[in-house]
Write a structure and sequence with these properties.
six-stranded parallel beta sheet, 2 domains, globular, Rossmann fold, binds uridine-5'-diphosphate-xylopyranose, alpha/beta
């Protein structure tokens, strides 16, 4: 049965969740206090790049199932269930800044006139649902009944619409049958397995899952270091490991390390939360160290081959933190650029989607040239680096690339290319762990 849903926050999670809920028939109102964003959405624009999202939003706005507002009160007033999907940015000590969540909880409290279900979708430390409950109770104008649910979101950027429409599981953390029934109804059209648990366990599922995935990547990156020393091939090792169903092949791609707005942040947060609860999560600290070392090792590889980096022209393919996104937050590709620039290299950079988002944080100048076409990046370069796993880089005209370069060094930071094919084109190929 269609429900009236309010979403507070129109970032990655909020906007995609709102659009997908509308797509399955719910009536959704998305609120954001950023006037610019709401004006853009009203004008048919989408503030982020996410495959399939623009069409999804357009279709559901046209069908009258998706609306946008600047007013949290309007979203609260007109909805049975309100989802909080605001940012929870990291603080320098690794803990999470919950001020946006707290502010939204107060705004919701001020607008509550009758029973509502308030759902936390943002990634938050364990016990946040309890704090949200306390805050709403404290700031509510009258004594109103409400329930709080923890319902973490597992979508990946670049695949967000797909992940949301076909989730592996739906986690519902709450106490009491009323919110469980409502949440099950909301998610029924998605036909996914549902786990009903307490709020603390639901909150921990998110941090534990993301930290495990980060661990999996650091594990294969550590194995890659051993493969390099032994002359083995980490892709073959990952393939063989992944065929064990208990392990699985996904998230076993060695590279220049993980980045993005989730893994580094969630890992730091989980370590911090654990320590506040009295457990020193040494294993996860090691995951962080391996990730940092992975970049050091790659930069050394480039330096060892080029001997001197000063005034060397290096082509960098990829700026986004991974494929299929324009997001450069905590991007290993950008960190690599900064490290190379720090040693005096001159960069020619390109990304199929992330040039606009990268420009403010990696300003163009005498040492950084933004190149419109990927195929033109190699021109005049002493070396080329693949920094993001965009599949289209594999289909460049590599024979032409080789001719356009002044030296044939190719560093594949994502193990995207076929070594033998590249060597047959005359490249000196260096991957990660193979
Ligand atoms: C992640 C989780 O996958 C998602 O479930 C959660 O909700 C948010 O965080 P996201 O940050 O969008 O999603 O990207 P993801 O595809 O998980 O990749 C994260 C980073 O790991 C990227 O930098 C990627 O390049 C890197 N990565 C991923 C590897 O280096 N190797 C791999 O095998 C997989």
């Amino acid at each position: 049965m269609a429900k009236r849903l309010g979403i507070i926050g129109t970032g990655y999670v909020g906007l995609v969740t709102g659009a997908c809920f509308a797509e399955v028939g719910h009536h959704v109102i998305c609120a954001d206090n950023n006037a610019g964003k709401i004006a853009m959405l009203h004008a048919g624009g989408i503030p982020i790049y996410e495959p399939g999202l623009e069409e999804l939003v357009r279709r559901n706005v046209a069908a009258g199932r998706l609306r946008f507002t600047q007013s949290t009160a309007e979203a609260v007033d007109g909805s049975e269930v309100i989802f909080i999907a605001v940012p929870t940015p990291p603080q320098p000590d690794g803990s999470v800044d919950l001020s946006f969540i707290e502010a939204v909880a107060r705004e919701i409290a001020a607008s509550l006139t009758g029973y509502r279900i308030i759902v936390d979708k943002s990634t938050v430390p364990v016990k946040t649902a309890e704090k949200v409950s306390e805050t709403i109770r404290r700031y509510a104008k009258t004594k109103v009944d409400f329930d709080v649910v923890s319902n973490p979101e597992f979508l990946r950027e670049g695949f967000a619409v797909d992940d949301l429409m076909k989730p592996d599981r739906i986690v519902i953390g709450t106490s009491g049958p009323r919110p469980v029934a409502a949440m099950k109804e909301i998610y029924a059209p998605f036909h996914a397995p549902v786990i009903v648990t307490d709020t603390s366990s639901a909150e921990l599922i998110k941090h534990a899952a993301n930290s495990f995935l980060a661990l999996k990547i650091s594990y294969i990156n550590a194995v890659a270091a051993v493969c390099e020393a032994a002359g083995a091939n980490v892709s073959e090792v990952a393939h063989g490991m992944g065929m064990d169903e208990r392990i699985g092949r996904r998230f076993l791609n060695a590279g220049i390390g993980f980045g993005g707005s989730c893994f580094p942040k969630d890992l730091a947060a989980f370590i911090k939360i654990s320590s506040q609860l009295g457990y020193d999560f040494r294993l996860l600290k090691e995951v962080q160290s391996i990730n940092a070392e992975q970049m050091d090792r790659f930069v050394s590889k480039v330096r060892d081959a080029l001997w001197v980096l000063r005034d060397k022209r290096i082509g960098v393919l990829g700026l986004a933190f991974k494929q299929n996104t324009d997001d450069v937050r905590q991007s290993p590709a950008l960190e690599l650029c900064r490290r190379l620039l720090g040693e005096g290299a001159l960069l020619r950079v390109h990304d199929p989607r992330a040039m606009e988002t990268a420009r403010p944080v990696l300003p163009p100048g005498p040492a950084v040239e933004y190149v419109e076409a990927a195929q033109d990046v190699p021109v005049g370069c002493d070396a080329l680096v693949i920094a993001t796993e965009w599949p289209e880089f594999a289909s460049l005209d590599w024979a032409k690339a080789r001719r356009d370069m002044v030296a044939p060094l190719l560093f594949d930071g994502r193990n995207l290319l076929d070594r033998a094919a590249m060597e047959s084109q005359g490249f000196i190929y260096r991957g990660v762990g193979r």
